[in-house]
Protein 1
Amino acid sequence: EAGVAQSPRYKIIEKRQSVAFWCNPISGHATLYWYQQILGQGPKLLIQFQNNGVVDDSQLPKDRFSAERLKGVDSTLKIQPAKLEDSAVYLCASSKGLAGDSFPGELFFGEGSRLTVL
Amino acid sequence: AQSVTQPDIHITVSEGASLELRCNYSYGATPYLFWYVQSPGQGLQLLLKYFSGDTLVQGIKGFEAEFKRSQSSFNLRKPSVHWSDAAEYFCAVGGNNDMRFGAGTRLTVKP
């Protein structure tokens, strides 16, 4: 079974530039998450999709970050314009679990996309 | 709101020694608790999880964790550490739409 795929693995940009990250979840997983992991910190949830709908985007800085999962499969996270403090690893995860399930499903993580903003 | 505290930023143990990583949580309802491991440059991998029932749960790679409701803790243990266990360990609490992670504990293993 293929895991969660993310690209690019590394990206270096100047501040105020834009960047996009792509994620392809495990086949059949309805729920997709984007996490931001700043160096020395735990992952912080940015946005959660269930199929092609947004479940939670309360911690997404919507003035500069956007994400979509148009067909309920792969997803793109965009940052425009980037700030220095956006330097982080952006982790995508997927799960079979649904928001209404009695027990949460296991999250499967990709290897992450490391962003450096200069 | 739920939160997770991992009091130890960095722990160093000798190979073969026992290990305990601490995790304290705050959660309004019955917590679902997890431990994940992250090797350098890799994504997170689930070690074990607690949903209900037996408070001592077994995971992969010889790890176990004990849920103590009275102490709001879910500490991770391993009787004998191997050099390959050197990594970052994250405790997490939550469900399908509110998973929250601790800041992590970095484990160094001395030869």
Protein 2
Amino acid sequence: SYVLTQPPSVSVAPGQTARITCGGNNIGSKSVHWYQQKPGQAPVLVVYDDSDRPSGIPERFSGSNSGNTATLTISRVEAGDEADYYCQVWDSSSDHHVVFGGGTKLTVL
Amino acid sequence: QVQLVQSGAEVKKPGASVKVSCKASGYTFTSYDINWVRQATGQGLEWMGWMNPNSGNTGYAQKFQGRVTMTRNTSISTAYMELSSLRSEDTAVYYCARVSGTVALNSWGQGTLVTVSS
């Protein structure tokens, strides 16, 4: 089955830029979606189709995808961005179909 | 606005079944697939399967094949996920989520905590 690999944690100071990676075999050929999940809350879609933002998501959230790595970039990080972030793809060759990365805990120092 | 409202928390004994509901509003229920995702405490997101509310067609993750059933009642815009032969490892928050486009889960229910304990 298709595997997505994320770093367990990323730390960044307020105002700086956070980059969270999501590795997968030829992930650049797939559409990658990113979710933010705060404690006790349901996940929220923050980037879809590699780099598009749903309405209401700040422009500070952006995404890219090429080769074997997709990246979620959060610019001008704020304390409120502290959360778990998950990448996700749909893989027709996998029995899982919907595949999530293991998640990355973003800590704002 | 799109809303998915799930049923309340459940406590079940090992070997029992649980049925979680997900009531949709703010859009045409039959126009978007519903997926189910679960999350054990302190763990990541685990995909369980999908259902097309229009046709009733389903697809399940291999891990849950034979134990999970996803159904719907279009007259009340509600999707259901039933999990049988529960074991302690099934203790988790269960989410329904609406799919759009390239299988992005763009709207989520609030989650339903299912606790399996003797």
Protein 3
Amino acid sequence: DIQLTQSPSFLSASVGDRVTITCRASQGINNYLAWYQQKVDKAPKLLIYTASSLQSGVPSRFSGSGSGTEFTLTISCLQPEDFAVYYCQQLNSYPLTFGGGTKVELK
Amino acid sequence: EVQLVESGGGVVQPGGSLRLSCAASGFTFSDHYMDWVRQAPGKGLDWIGRIRNKANKYTTEYAASVKGRFTVSRDDSVNSLYLQMNSLKIEDTAVYYCVRVYGSDWSTHYFDYWGQGTLVTVSS
């Protein structure tokens, strides 16, 4: 199984900050990586697919990059509604797996 | 508007069975692969299974943790997805989400729509 390691697991930030979350895969995943945002008691929401493509309707302050085994999600200017948990997911092989999550909290 | 609405959750004893349903609307259900994802209380996301579309013979994939106990099925005539859960264990306690897979190629296997989830509690 492909393991995804997210870092950090917890991040304290202020409105307006630039935030970067890293996701490392235990083997190459052909850029078949997605990022999701989950707010409290809500279903996850797709932000980024194929490592760097922005899902329709998602603000442009979110961006994804990376290749091979290391990927990043960047929020360029953190907004109050961005405080949530973020998960990466690999879509390269079964079983599909998620990272452990990164909780972004208000400093 | 795409909607996925799960139902069937509840409390069940260890060793028991439960069947979850997901009613889909707002898109051509029969075209899409459909998956189930769960989330234990306070924990992360856990993919559990997939059913492909008719063009791909309705074949299925499962996580090792549920293989042989859970069965994913679908009825395209009523736009519904199902999860039959047998031999339930305490560690199966979670919110279960029905999700739509965007496309059929590996590059498009991301989850673009999620239901609101239904809670399954396995407890004696």
Protein 4
Amino acid sequence: EAEVAQSPRYKITEKSQAVAFWCDPISGHATLYWYRQILGQGPELLVQFQDESVVDDSQLPKDRFSAERLKGVDSTLKIQPAELGDSAMYLCASSPRPRGELFFGEGSRLTVL
Amino acid sequence: DQQVKQNSPSLSVQEGRISILNCDYTNSMFDYFLWYKKYPAEGPTFLISISSIKDKNEDGRFTVFLNKSAKHLSLHIVPSQPGDSAVYFCAASATSGTYKYIFGTGTRLKVLA
């Protein structure tokens, strides 16, 4: 069964360092999402791609976060510099279409010390 | 402003009984809803969806009910099994714009053997 791949699964870093997360969606899924989930809260959308274009990044802290999906396939989410409050689970999801079911990866757990 | 609310942080149910998880929303433009289940250290997995043109959708032990006038939906699990113990999230999407999904804060279900 096709899955959304994410790496790394776990990342520990010190504040002010740079961090990058990678996501490979299910083949053929045009829509890709990055969500952030803080413990005890629901997933919060950071950025949504349709193919290689950003369609929503209204909640992305653009002073420190960036995301790209250059060829409309895999995607990278970067944080620079990392802050203590960025400690969270970063979830990537893909969907065959904008209103379709979301398929999530296992997530990347970030701890900022 | 929390547009999707799950007011019960936790719920305990005996094995074999019915579990009812509730979700309220405030945005009348939401017309498509999803339920997800999440185990610790894993990404959310899709359970069931419902469109606003319906008031009920069933899939095996899972049934979702939608009350548009009350802006309320509920997920029924019958019979509940210990493997259902997880955090459940509802998510809503509007009919216009980017169709992004807004997630609730989750309800932790514990099914007691």
